[in-house]
Automatic annotation (TrEMBL), chains A, B:
Its EC number is 6.1.1.15. It comes from Ancrocorticia populi. Belongs to the class-II aminoacyl-tRNA synthetase family. ProS type 1 subfamily. It is an enzyme of class 6 (ligase). InterPro entries: aa-tRNA-synt_IIb (IPR002314), aa-tRNA-synth_II (IPR006195), aa-tRNA-synth_II/BPL/LPL (IPR045864), Anticodon-bd (IPR004154), Anticodon-bd_dom_sf (IPR036621), Pro-tRNA-ligase_IIa (IPR002316), Pro-tRNA-synth_IIa_bac-type (IPR004500), Pro-tRNA-Synthase_IIa_type1 (IPR023717). PROSITE patterns: AA_TRNA_LIGASE_II. Keywords: Aminoacyl-tRNA synthetase, ATP-binding, Cytoplasm, Ligase, Nucleotide-binding, Protein biosynthesis. This is Proline--tRNA ligase. It is found in: Cytoplasm. It comes from the Bacteria.
Length: 591, 591
């Protein structure tokens, strides 16, 4: 039994200054969490109770599917990460340090290497497989922009599981069993989830899905089609466009276009100086060339130019997903200084990519040029002429210029066709709570995890990777289960099921509240008693609403007539019941 | 139900090469733990089960005494540790790192600052107190010599609790309540414990006790007297000696003592050249001056000389405890080079301490000299004359030389008198599992944790600190509960209570074992079934003995006659029981 009179909690009426999203505000105001440093939080008693219950649900479902729990260290030596090249690849997101003997260590952002090595240590035969191991463990990632409380933290709790199979069919089977376990977890939590096709990103691998909680404040954008296609926008592929016949397209023509440094002004100038007869020029007729800076894992930087139709924006997350593990940023004027041929606002293909005068043995990569698939081969464009106040018309891709390759860079917009032909896409936002994917043999090859097969032949094991952000899921639950007044926890993870509020002064009220609490607890129902003596009923109701215990029992004026009030935080419903029947009536009230 | 056929475990018949103590060997051989780096371990499924049960017992006793659980981050910012000066004081034992913005962080070796700041954040009145908070959390310490598996690790699990009281009486009361909780924890674990007076060391504070598990392989030495005095040797104080009358002692006399660089040779030479009439010279007549190097937290080094009777060795742990937070090492010949007046083997008081020619305004600390309390004021000594092959006789402490102070430096030996007069001390070794102490106001003052008292006056809160090494306690349990063949877990923390061994080939044996397992589990008894098909009975028995599940049920040849065998791993007892009564008979068998 928890008692408000001694519970380590102090509710706040004001939102914390650094909080922007509801879950963050309410978890701080309800004393569930406290910030220690950017993206690093302490769990207070109420928060830890919710977190533990959430972990228990995850653990139960993992155990139920036959996964076995282990616990790896958070502090790991450099060597295994060297073998897989990730010591370098991880870049600035990994916290690195040295011990007193100057040996290199890292704070594990993920544990692929450790799981692989552990299975290699113990197992040696196909008869040992399949095996699925998991842990619920603290992870560290030095995020550039920690945000929204525990939604994107730098120290956070994750469940990560890995499966080990002798062959791809086995991996598929384990993948789908794990997928069902994830569905069960989110069903138990009552959290709606969109399962999206995803890129496996820096991890390598093939089959890959994200479990997104659809939500306005989410950082991930995903799409869905009427025909059931669901994907993270990073994973959406553009259906290939047919090559166009450019036989009738005149030769490229440079045109003075003063002050046309934006697509909008360029279209206006084009319609003014070179009007079309069939229709007006549109943004879709212009080819925009966007310069980005890549920072490769080892630290070297590269300028890269991306060409896409002027009516589309670049989606940096799609670009990043395509270019991982490099980090990508928009190039700054400073970045451009070393390349005087790049005239801001007037960049065109004629000086970049395969056309670049800088291409040499020494600098084969200089000004790499990638084209978004919305640019069809054979299509003609208005684009920069690489001189101030000048554009070129009728520049044909495949005739007048080439690129170094294609890249999914343009933002996906509502109405785009799903790549599987299942209809126009709708765009939504969400928070990524889980990610499952077939990792394949990347780590088992790098770390030489082999077992003997049925024929006594040595075989590389194939792996699956299954992550679930535990602290982030807690935040998503808070996000999904709140109203203006505060949190409204689902019963399975609430810090208590019933909050008994004493709203009056007589000792008999407090005694009755205690007796009731014991009755509830005898039925296995967890109780938080608000037994504070000098706190008004108004404050107690406000705290009840803020803390989010799903049901309330008010022991107050009605007690003189032998009644208490049951309240549902979720529905707002209230009923007076005889105090002697409170526990029995509560079962009906809930139902 | 656990099944050996799928359990992630592979027992080893050979001891691991790097293991010296039984618990380390057996935990590795039984696949409870695996080493990842020095002092850093992974917990495998069986190990994690035992660890979780141990954590549950600790949690239950903490909750029972009213402590509230929280969870602090492992990665902490520098600032709070600056305020208490511990960023520097901790020295090389703390892992430090920088984030991507070059901000300083540390991996928490302990969380005093965080607990203090959290209470300061939430509480403001004496009415809020007392409060006791605790966490069960991963700690990081860059030990110079990690050893013995998880006994001294660099990443380990600790329960740390802090109490906050308005006054000293309250702190005393909380201290004793916590002391009882610790006693209950170790009683539940069946682990014998010596509660020893201790130094609070680098932590500051006053009342301080360690919970030691007495054990030969322990790193801590403690003493006990027939009258019940128990103390860590670091905390043993030497009863003060009365001052001697040196009126009859002749003036100091330098004597040539060729090759007398050890106490043994010096005593022989003295008896040879200057025999006493009343008795022979003994080591106890010589004053040994030992040079140590102090490394202060900020990094500066200092030579310090300790004087003690020649028949006693220096106990570096006692010296370290006295000089904390400085680190102490024996000085090397290299260290002595800057001080030509220190002639190795012939160092005497006449050139050190207050007698040092180096004492000046600029260098007041040079060659500080501290005297062990076994050297009485007024006593006469044979000691070094600061020239090669020369000692001085009749050098009287307080007449011919002074020291800068006293230090408890000499080793405590069996037969020494207890400081409280409770008789001669016996020496024993142990592993420190817990440490409770009254921290007082060190942290609350440094971090300004004040509350308003009954009179509206601001008061500094007083704190208690209560640590318990969870992973180390697990190792102690393994150390205490093993025999030649393997581990023998106590039921409360065993990975399972009953191991069912199928020793035969018929399908009916495996089916019966499964049915029996379900019967046991229906009674709430946890079962590990050894259902491996191509494994011999001999291997199964060996694994049963190694893994340490306390009871076995053998389903084998007897089944034809309707019986199974119950075995106790602890007593070796075996009984045949009818298979239909196995569960009922098991209750009797255990009792």
């Amino acid at each position: 039994m928890l008692r408000m009179s001694t519970l380590f909690v102090r509710t706040l009426r004001e939102d914390p200054a650094d909080a922007e999203v509801a879950s963050h505000k309410l978890l701080v105001r309800g004393s569930y969490i406290r910030r220690v440093a950017p993206g690093i939080y302490t769990w207070l008693p109420l928060g830890l109770k919710v977190l533990s219950k959430l972990e228990t649900i995850v653990r139960e479902e993992m155990d139920a599917m036959g996964a076995q729990e282990v616990l790896f260290p958070g502090l790991l030596p450099r060597e295994p990460y060297e073998a897989t090249n990730r010591w370098t690849e991880y870049g600035p997101t990994v916290f690195k340090l040295k011990d007193r003997k100057e040996a290199d260590y890292l704070l594990a952002p993920t544990h692929e290497e450790m799981f692989t090595l552990l299975v290699k240590d113990l197992y040696s035969s196909y008869k040992d497989l399949p095996v699925v191991l998991y842990q619920i463990q603290t992870k560290y990632r030095d995020e550039a922009r920690p945000r929204a409380g525990v939604i994107r933290g730098r120290e956070f709790v994750m469940k990560d599981a890995y499966s080990f199979n002798i062959d791809d069919d086995g991996l598929d089977a384990t993948y789908f069993t794990m997928r069902e376990s994830y569905q069960k977890i989110f069903q138990r939590l009552g959290l709606p989830i969109a399962i999206c096709r995803a890129m496996s990103g820096a991890m390598g691998g093939s089959r890959s899905e994200e479990f997104l909680f659809p939500c306005e404040i989410g950082e991930d954008t995903f799409v869905r089609s009427p025909g059931g296609y669901t994907a993270n926008t990073e994973a959406v592929t553009t259906p290939p466009l047919p090559e166009l016949d450019y036989a009738g397209v005149p030769a490229p023509e440079p045109v003075d276009t003063p002050d046309a440094t934006t697509i909008e002004t360029l279209v206006a100038v084009a319609n003014d100086l070179r009007p079309r007869v069939d229709r007006a020029w549109e943004a879709a007729d212009t080819l925009k060339n966007v310069v980005v800076t890549l920072t490769h894992p080892a630290g070297e930087r590269e300028l890269l130019i991306i060409g896409l139709p002027g009516e589309r924006d670049v989606d940096m997350k799609r670009v990043e997903a395509s270019l991982a593990p490099a980090e990508v940023e928009m190039a700054t004027p400073e970045d451009l200084k070393a390349f005087p041929e790049l005239v801001p606002g007037y960049i065109g293909p004629e000086v970049i990519g395969p056309q670049s005068a800088r291409r040499s043995e020494d600098e084969p990569m200089a000004l790499r040029y990638l084209i978004d698939p919305h640019v069809a081969r054979g299509s003609a464009w208005i684009t920069g002429a690489n001189e101030p106040n000048k554009h070129v018309f009728n520049l044909v891709y495949g005739r007048d210029f080439e690129a170094d390759g294609t890249i999914e860079a343009a933002e996906v917009v509502a109405g785009d066709e799903a790549p599987d032909g299942s209809g126009p896409l709708e765009i939504a936002r969400g928070i990524e709570l889980g990610h499952i994917f077939e990792l394949g043999r990347k780590y088992s090859e790098a770390l030489d995890l082999k077992v003997l097969d049925q024929n006594g032949k040595s075989q590389i094991v194939t792996m699956g990777s299954y992550g679930l952000g535990v602290t982030r899921t807690l935040a998503a639950l808070a996000e999904f289960n709140h109203d203006e007044a505060g949190l409204v926890w689902p019963e399975e993870i609430a810090p208590a099921t019933v909050q008994i509020l004493v709203t009056g002064k007589g000792d008999e009220l407090f005694e009755k509240a205690d007796a009731l609490a014991r009755e509830f607890e005898a039925e296995g129902i967890e109780v938080l008693v608000d037994d504070r003596k000098k706190v008004s009923a108004g404050v107690k109701f406000k705290d009840f609403e803020l803390l989010g215990v799903p049901y309330g029992v008010v022991v107050g004026r009605g007690l003189a007539d032998g009644t208490v009030e049951l309240r549902s935080r979720r529905t707002g419903e209230r009923v007076e019941v005889p105090v002697g029947e409170a526990v029995a009536k509560f079962a009906e009230f809930k139902a």
